[in-house]
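Recall that a protein's primary structure is simply its ordered list of amino acids. Everything else, from secondary elements to tertiary packing, is in principle encoded there. The following example makes that idea concrete.
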Amino acid sequence: MRANSSGPRSVLPLIAVLMLVGLFCAGVGLGQLFGLPSLTSLSSFWDRGSAEGLNASIPTRISIPSLGVRAEVIEVGRAADGSIATPASDPAEATGWYRLGPTPGERGTAVIVGHVDTDSEPAVFHKLPELRKGKLIEVNRVDRRVATFTVESVETFPKTSFPADRVFESTDRPRLVLVTCGGAWVGGDIGYSDNVIVFATLA
Protein backbone atom coordinates (compact mmCIF):
# COMPACT_ATOMS: atom_id res chain seq x y z
CA MET A 1 0.00 0.00 0.00
CA ARG A 2 1.28 3.46 -0.86
CA ALA A 3 0.33 6.58 1.07
CA ASN A 4 0.80 10.23 0.30
CA SER A 5 3.15 11.99 2.67
CA SER A 6 0.22 14.28 3.51
CA GLY A 7 -2.33 11.48 3.73
CA PRO A 8 -3.46 8.24 2.10
CA ARG A 9 -3.80 8.08 -1.69
CA SER A 10 -7.28 7.55 -3.08
CA VAL A 11 -6.75 3.97 -4.25
CA LEU A 12 -7.75 0.52 -3.11
CA PRO A 13 -4.34 -0.82 -2.08
CA LEU A 14 -5.60 -3.91 -0.31
CA ILE A 15 -8.86 -4.64 -2.05
CA ALA A 16 -9.90 -7.74 -0.13
CA VAL A 17 -8.34 -6.66 3.14
CA LEU A 18 -10.09 -3.30 3.09
CA MET A 19 -13.38 -5.13 3.37
CA LEU A 20 -12.23 -7.57 6.01
CA VAL A 21 -9.92 -5.73 8.35
CA GLY A 22 -10.79 -2.06 8.16
CA LEU A 23 -7.63 -0.95 6.39
CA PHE A 24 -6.94 2.76 6.54
CA CYS A 25 -6.56 3.93 2.97
CA ALA A 26 -8.91 6.46 1.41
CA GLY A 27 -12.45 6.59 2.80
CA VAL A 28 -14.23 4.63 0.09
CA GLY A 29 -17.55 2.82 0.44
CA LEU A 30 -16.65 -0.73 -0.57
CA GLY A 31 -19.78 -2.82 -0.22
CA GLN A 32 -19.51 -6.50 -1.03
CA LEU A 33 -16.30 -7.45 -2.87
CA PHE A 34 -15.45 -10.86 -4.33
CA GLY A 35 -18.22 -12.50 -2.28
CA LEU A 36 -16.33 -11.92 0.98
CA PRO A 37 -18.28 -11.61 4.25
CA SER A 38 -19.57 -8.25 5.39
CA LEU A 39 -18.03 -6.51 8.38
CA THR A 40 -21.08 -7.33 10.46
CA SER A 41 -20.60 -11.06 9.91
CA LEU A 42 -16.88 -11.25 10.72
CA SER A 43 -17.41 -12.50 14.26
CA SER A 44 -17.79 -16.03 12.93
CA PHE A 45 -14.19 -15.95 11.70
CA TRP A 46 -12.68 -15.16 15.09
CA ASP A 47 -12.91 -18.33 17.14
CA ARG A 48 -11.45 -17.58 20.56
CA GLY A 49 -11.56 -21.25 21.54
CA SER A 50 -10.28 -22.55 24.86
CA ALA A 51 -6.49 -22.27 24.65
CA GLU A 52 -4.49 -19.99 26.92
CA GLY A 53 -4.19 -16.38 25.84
CA LEU A 54 -3.92 -12.90 27.29
CA ASN A 55 -6.87 -10.83 28.40
CA ALA A 56 -8.12 -8.14 26.05
CA SER A 57 -5.98 -4.99 25.99
CA ILE A 58 -5.65 -2.37 23.26
CA PRO A 59 -2.31 -2.40 21.40
CA THR A 60 -0.21 0.76 21.42
CA ARG A 61 3.02 -0.05 19.56
CA ILE A 62 4.40 -2.77 17.33
CA SER A 63 8.08 -3.71 17.08
CA ILE A 64 9.83 -6.04 14.66
CA PRO A 65 13.42 -6.09 15.98
CA SER A 66 14.96 -7.92 13.01
CA LEU A 67 13.66 -5.23 10.62
CA GLY A 68 14.23 -2.22 12.86
CA VAL A 69 10.50 -1.47 12.88
CA ARG A 70 8.90 0.34 15.80
CA ALA A 71 5.58 2.04 15.12
CA GLU A 72 2.44 3.37 16.74
CA VAL A 73 -0.68 1.22 16.50
CA ILE A 74 -3.94 3.05 15.82
CA GLU A 75 -7.40 1.58 16.31
CA VAL A 76 -9.19 1.20 12.96
CA GLY A 77 -12.88 0.52 12.47
CA ARG A 78 -15.69 1.65 10.18
CA ALA A 79 -16.78 5.14 9.21
CA ALA A 80 -20.40 6.23 9.59
CA ASP A 81 -21.12 5.51 5.92
CA GLY A 82 -19.77 1.98 6.21
CA SER A 83 -16.46 2.79 4.53
CA ILE A 84 -13.09 2.20 6.13
CA ALA A 85 -12.24 4.78 8.77
CA THR A 86 -9.02 6.77 8.45
CA PRO A 87 -6.58 7.00 11.39
CA ALA A 88 -6.00 10.36 13.05
CA SER A 89 -2.23 10.38 12.56
CA ASP A 90 0.07 9.82 9.57
CA PRO A 91 -0.75 6.43 7.98
CA ALA A 92 2.75 6.26 6.48
CA GLU A 93 4.31 6.06 9.93
CA ALA A 94 1.59 4.27 11.92
CA THR A 95 -0.11 0.89 11.68
CA GLY A 96 -3.79 0.06 12.06
CA TRP A 97 -5.27 -2.61 14.31
CA TYR A 98 -8.77 -3.77 13.37
CA ARG A 99 -10.59 -3.07 16.61
CA LEU A 100 -13.63 -5.24 15.87
CA GLY A 101 -11.46 -8.36 16.14
CA PRO A 102 -9.37 -9.70 19.05
CA THR A 103 -6.59 -7.65 20.56
CA PRO A 104 -3.04 -8.99 20.04
CA GLY A 105 -2.46 -11.82 22.51
CA GLU A 106 -6.10 -12.79 22.87
CA ARG A 107 -7.30 -16.13 21.52
CA GLY A 108 -8.14 -15.85 17.85
CA THR A 109 -6.63 -13.68 15.14
CA ALA A 110 -5.60 -10.06 15.61
CA VAL A 111 -4.94 -8.16 12.38
CA ILE A 112 -2.58 -5.20 11.94
CA VAL A 113 -2.11 -3.44 8.59
CA GLY A 114 0.34 -0.83 7.34
CA HIS A 115 1.53 1.05 4.27
CA VAL A 116 4.54 -0.08 2.25
CA ASP A 117 5.57 3.38 1.00
CA THR A 118 4.58 6.98 0.26
CA ASP A 119 4.99 9.00 -2.92
CA SER A 120 8.57 9.77 -1.93
CA GLU A 121 9.87 7.33 0.69
CA PRO A 122 9.45 3.91 2.33
CA ALA A 123 6.67 3.56 4.92
CA VAL A 124 6.26 1.47 8.06
CA PHE A 125 5.94 -2.00 6.48
CA HIS A 126 8.37 -1.43 3.61
CA LYS A 127 10.68 -4.23 4.81
CA LEU A 128 7.94 -6.71 5.68
CA PRO A 129 8.81 -9.07 2.75
CA GLU A 130 12.28 -9.47 4.33
CA LEU A 131 10.86 -10.94 7.54
CA ARG A 132 11.72 -14.60 8.07
CA LYS A 133 10.23 -17.59 9.86
CA GLY A 134 11.19 -17.74 13.54
CA LYS A 135 11.69 -13.98 13.94
CA LEU A 136 9.80 -12.12 16.65
CA ILE A 137 7.07 -9.49 16.57
CA GLU A 138 6.36 -7.59 19.79
CA VAL A 139 3.13 -5.71 20.47
CA ASN A 140 2.94 -3.34 23.44
CA ARG A 141 -0.48 -3.08 25.05
CA VAL A 142 -2.31 -0.65 27.32
CA ASP A 143 -2.05 -3.15 30.21
CA ARG A 144 1.77 -2.77 29.96
CA ARG A 145 2.16 -6.35 28.82
CA VAL A 146 4.03 -7.19 25.63
CA ALA A 147 2.51 -9.85 23.39
CA THR A 148 5.42 -11.56 21.62
CA PHE A 149 4.69 -13.52 18.45
CA THR A 150 6.86 -15.91 16.43
CA VAL A 151 6.64 -15.65 12.65
CA GLU A 152 5.38 -18.84 11.02
CA SER A 153 5.46 -17.65 7.40
CA VAL A 154 5.68 -14.61 5.14
CA GLU A 155 3.71 -15.06 1.94
CA THR A 156 2.61 -13.09 -1.13
CA PHE A 157 -0.84 -13.34 -2.70
CA PRO A 158 -2.44 -11.59 -5.70
CA LYS A 159 -4.99 -9.07 -4.51
CA THR A 160 -7.66 -10.96 -6.40
CA SER A 161 -6.91 -14.05 -4.28
CA PHE A 162 -6.87 -12.74 -0.72
CA PRO A 163 -6.67 -15.86 1.54
CA ALA A 164 -9.51 -15.03 3.91
CA ASP A 165 -9.80 -18.66 5.03
CA ARG A 166 -6.20 -18.57 6.31
CA VAL A 167 -6.18 -15.04 7.68
CA PHE A 168 -9.34 -15.76 9.68
CA GLU A 169 -8.68 -19.43 10.29
CA SER A 170 -10.78 -20.93 13.08
CA THR A 171 -8.29 -21.50 15.88
CA ASP A 172 -7.96 -21.57 19.64
CA ARG A 173 -4.46 -20.10 19.44
CA PRO A 174 -3.62 -16.41 19.79
CA ARG A 175 -2.51 -15.39 16.30
CA LEU A 176 -1.29 -12.21 14.66
CA VAL A 177 -1.56 -11.37 10.97
CA LEU A 178 0.26 -8.41 9.39
CA VAL A 179 -0.80 -7.16 5.97
CA THR A 180 0.74 -4.72 3.50
CA CYS A 181 1.12 -4.36 -0.26
CA GLY A 182 3.77 -5.86 -2.52
CA GLY A 183 4.59 -6.91 -6.03
CA ALA A 184 4.56 -4.54 -8.99
CA TRP A 185 3.03 -1.07 -8.92
CA VAL A 186 0.16 -1.16 -11.41
CA GLY A 187 -1.55 2.10 -10.41
CA GLY A 188 -5.21 2.89 -10.90
CA ASP A 189 -7.64 1.43 -8.38
CA ILE A 190 -5.29 -1.47 -7.61
CA GLY A 191 -2.04 0.22 -6.58
CA TYR A 192 0.32 -2.69 -5.99
CA SER A 193 -0.51 -6.04 -7.53
CA ASP A 194 -0.11 -8.21 -4.43
CA ASN A 195 -0.58 -8.47 -0.67
CA VAL A 196 2.31 -9.43 1.59
CA ILE A 197 0.92 -11.29 4.61
CA VAL A 198 2.77 -12.38 7.75
CA PHE A 199 1.30 -15.20 9.85
CA ALA A 200 2.51 -15.46 13.46
CA THR A 201 1.52 -17.15 16.71
CA LEU A 202 1.94 -16.09 20.32
CA ALA A 203 5.37 -17.16 21.59
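Confidence is low (pLDDT under 50) at residues 5-44, 46-50. The helical segments are 15-21, 164-167.
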